[in-house]
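Appendix B, record 7
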Amino acid sequence: MEKFKLKLEAREARKPNQLRRAGKIPATIYGPGVPSATIQVEAMEFSRLPAAAYSHIIELQGGQEGTINAIIRNVQRKHVSQEVLNIEFYRVASDRKLTVTVPLKFSGSSEAVTAGGQLMTNFDEAEVECFPQDIPDFIAVDISRITELDQGIHFGDLSLPDTVKILNPNDEIIVRVVSPRTGTEPGAATEATPTPAAAGAAS
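Structure tokens (predicted):
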């Protein structure tokens, strides 16, 4: 499990818009057994975090308590510019399970695709429950298991350690191979294009 670092600062007595103009992002940190606290982080430093940081533990450094282990629970952005307006950090405890989204990593080559089928991906993330130290970097999905058209891989087909539980329904299809649209016969039902989806929920 990869861990990222981010410096936090005590919230200045300024309005949120004034903080943002000064290159700061207003933020809140909360968690079990402790009162929530208002903080701020450097906008430039936060922007350098890779996408993987959104599903992994972040070491928040610089507070009165020293290092705090947390995850990013919510990021509020301006609709048009995608400027970050506010961040919610959730403090994690090593003895408490939490719910996070973890990316799916596809690998392998499907015989059905080689034969002319079309690969349709419904999910690129999974929702899991585990202790903070057991959060996986990714969950592997081997599409070489798909050898025929209209065959797919479900969440229930994934292999994970006992320390990680997938919360997505077992019968939901992650990825499947279907007949290409150009190969359908006249009058045949057209395969609907699945809508990509990703799960994410607060514990």
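Remarks on this record: The chain has three helices and 13 strands. The longest helix spans residues 16-21.
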